[in-house]
Amino acid sequence: MASPVDVGALLAGVRAGDRAAVSRAITLVESANDDHRAAARELLGALEPSPGSTRVGISGVPGVGKSTFIETLGTHLTGLGHRVGVLAVDPSSQRTGGSVLGDKTRMPRLTADAAAYIRPSPSSGTLGGVARATTQAMIVLENAGYDVVLVETVGVGQSETTVAGMVDTFLFLTLARTGDQLQGIKRGILELADVIAVNKADGDRVQEARSAARELAGALRMVHRSEATGEWTPPVLTCSGLEGTGVPEVWAEVGRHREHLGADGIAAQRAEQQLEFTWSIVRDELARRLERSPGVAAIRDEVRTAVLSGELPASLAADRLLAAYDAD
Fold it and tell me: InterPro entries per the record (predicted)?
């Protein structure tokens, strides 16, 4: 049995900005234990929303240098007086469910910065797990005084859509590549991105990066028809996370995007995100109840054998499992 959680003491610690309390609170909201989930709901119910915070999702193509960029950006922001929280949505170990990339080891300067907090968050193998744990962790960080929260996604598959649905601004990092550089970027990513930066624009790669930025800007004009509608067109910049050049300009564009949204726009966007998050929690909880259903457990092996042998179509197998769950 899990040890009882003193939610009041934990809440006081979070509001005081105590790093140990923040870590315990995020561990609590990530936990799948039923007692912990009840305590997490109590904790989150007492935390206040922070409309003045800045939530930025950061994704990018493989090898783009996200960690170096985030460390440089985070250090720049703490130098400006911000308190920065970094949530890294990592792929999970299929055996342990733990984070496997070790973001703290990849951001040594930011890890040592007293005004920053880095948390590698396991995805628990499901996008629903990402949405629940990361959204709630953001709320904890904001109540602990972190006014900028950066959410890093691994940049594969559907995770970008998940992260874009929980932040104010979605920043996409890419590289200058030889040949058809646009082929590696799906149209969906271009539609999600609010700001795009071509990273590693340093050394002898500066001109190549600028050329790639121009190419991307042209592609975006085909995706976004903003002149007539007044909608936001994602700017394309070049930067070097390693050298720091262009990083302040990237952050300035994040600020410009927030100004474009305005306070009412950000509030409306977050309200929509909360509604989607509500349904995400419902789906997550229903999946948990389905797995624990005695009726489902009683026929699971039988259904599995029938499906694998071809005797039972998947649609009918699903109907049987749902009927067993409903009968509980």
Answer: AAA+_ATPase (IPR003593), GTPase_ArgK (IPR005129), P-loop_NTPase (IPR027417)
Instruction: List own/partner pairs for 13-22 with CB under 8 A and 24 or more apart.
Output: 14/43, 14/47, 14/140, 14/143, 14/144, 15/143, 15/144, 17/144, 17/145, 18/144, 19/117, 21/144, 22/117, 22/140, 22/141, 22/144
pLDDT at 96 (0 to 100): 40
User: What is the residue extent of each domain of the chain?
Assistant: 1-47, 49-261, 293-327
Got the DSSP string for 128-191?
HHHHHHHHHHHHHHHHTT--EEEEEE--STTHHHHHHTTSSEEEEEE---SS-GGGGS-HHHHH
Strand partners, 116: 84
- At 292, the amino acid letter reads R
Give the domain 1-47 fold.
1.20.5
Kindly list the distances between the CA atom of residue 172 and the CA atoms of 153, 181, 218, 280, in Å, as whole numbers in the listed order: 10, 15, 16, 24
CA–CA gap between residue 103 and residue 86 (Å, rounded) = 10
The total of other beta-carbon atoms located within 10 Å of residue 52's CB is: 9
Dihedral sign from CA coordinates of 74, 78, 82, 84: positive
Contact between residue 168 and residue 266 where contact means Cβ atoms under 8 Å apart: yes
Q: Compute CA distances 111 → 28, 59, 275, 290, whole Å.
A: 22, 20, 33, 40
Supply the CATH classification number for the domain 49-261. Answer: 3.40.50.300
Q: What is the pLDDT of residue 97?
A: 42
pLDDT one-digit tens code per residue, 179-229:
445 555 566 777 789 999 999 999 889 999 999 899 888 877 776 665 556
Q: Do domains 1-47 and 49-261 have the same CATH topology?
A: no
Q: Give the distance, in angstroms, between the CA of residue 84 and the centroid of all CA atoms in the same chain.
A: 15
Instruction: Tell me if 127 sits within 8 A of 94, measured CB to CB.
Output: no
Name the one residue in this structure whose structure tokens are 């995400």: 280
Mapped onto helix, strand or coil, the DSSP state of residue 115 is coil
